[in-house]
Design brief:
This protein is of the alpha/beta class. It has two domains: 55 residues, Winged helix-like DNA-binding domain superfamily/Winged helix DNA-binding domain (Arc Repressor Mutant, subunit A); 185 residues, Rossmann fold, CATH 3.40.50. A seven-stranded parallel sheet has the order 6-5-4-9-12-14-15, sandwiched between helices. Helix 2 packs across helix 3. The protein is globular and about 60 Å long.
Length: 258
């Protein structure tokens, strides 16, 4: 197994269990402790994990959003598969909103080459889509957040009052069948909360590690979401709970060798 593949497996274990021990990983992968130490140090250098004595732990700080580059590095393969599935619901001439989440940002790689009006509060979405034919790009402006590289606050909310949004695509830090969608970033949570009533359809785009998790700031109740797009590592029983709440669930299939 290549180091990059082993590190992705380690990340998934940390996301699922919260932390890992080097000695247990070395035994599982049949490599030396030194090899695992180098893996964990490489992940820590990319701000993907936090090194602790004897292992590593998940980056979780309920008070602060992770910087965008660090969020982009987490579960990158799963995000790309989910993002590719999410864009399939978009039709020509739709007005869509793309939030500042890393998974939704990944959707910019797969958007169809058809006329679209794209609204966003994310600086990186504008950068990614700038110059593409047939797209009308509208950025909210507002108070700039460096960590999320996006705009929030009253100015951002006011900029969207005149638009009817066909599809609102949102990422989450947690999505729970009882509590709804939640965020660690209060500014992002408030903006999403204000946007939901203006959208005809609200689509949650997230990999399966976010399901049945909760974060400090809830921005939408479960019955406010139309569609969930996630990957096929999700527990089928959990997916049925979302379907039972009236959501359409789209499951993106990961290649079996991943």
């Amino acid at each position: 197994m290549l180091p990059a593949q082993r590190q992705e497996f380690i990340l998934r274990r940390i996301e699922a269990e919260g932390s890992v021990k080097s000695i247990e990983l070395a035994r599982e992968f049949e490599v030396t402790n030194e090899t695992i130490r180098k893996d964990l140090e490489a992940l820590a250098a990319e701000a993907r994990v936090i090194r602790i004595h004897g292992g590593a732990t998940r980056i979780t700080d309920a008070r602060h959003d992770m910087p965008l580059p660090a969020r982009q590095s987490m579960n990158r393969f799963e995000k790309s598969i989910v993002a590719r599935a999410a864009v399939q619901v978009i039709e020509p001439n739709d007005t869509i909103f793309l939030d500042a989440s890393s998974t939704v940002l990944t959707m910019t790689d797969y958007l169809p080459a058809v006329p679209l009006t794209v609204l966003t509060n994310a600086h990186h979405v504008i950068v990614a889509l700038g110059g593409r034919a047939n797209y009308d790009l509208i950025c909210t402006g507002g108070a700039y957040e460096e960590r999320s590289r996006s705009y929030v606050g009253a100015m951002a909310e006011d900029a969207l009052k005149r638009f009817v949004i066909k599809w609102l695509f949102v990422g989450v830090d947690g999505f729970h069948h009882l509590l709804g969608a939640s965020e660690v970033n209060p500014g992002q949570a408030v903006l999403k909360e204000r946007l939901i009533p203006r959208a005809e359809n609200v689509c949650v785009v997230c990999d399966s590690t976010k399901l049945e998790k909760k974060s400090p700031f809830i921005f939408g109740e479960i019955n406010q979401f139309s569609v969930l797009v996630t990957d096929d590592r999700a527990d089928p029983g959990i997916l049925k709970l979302y379907e039972g709440a009236g959501m359409r669930v789209i499951v993106a299939e990961l290649p079996r060798d991943k």
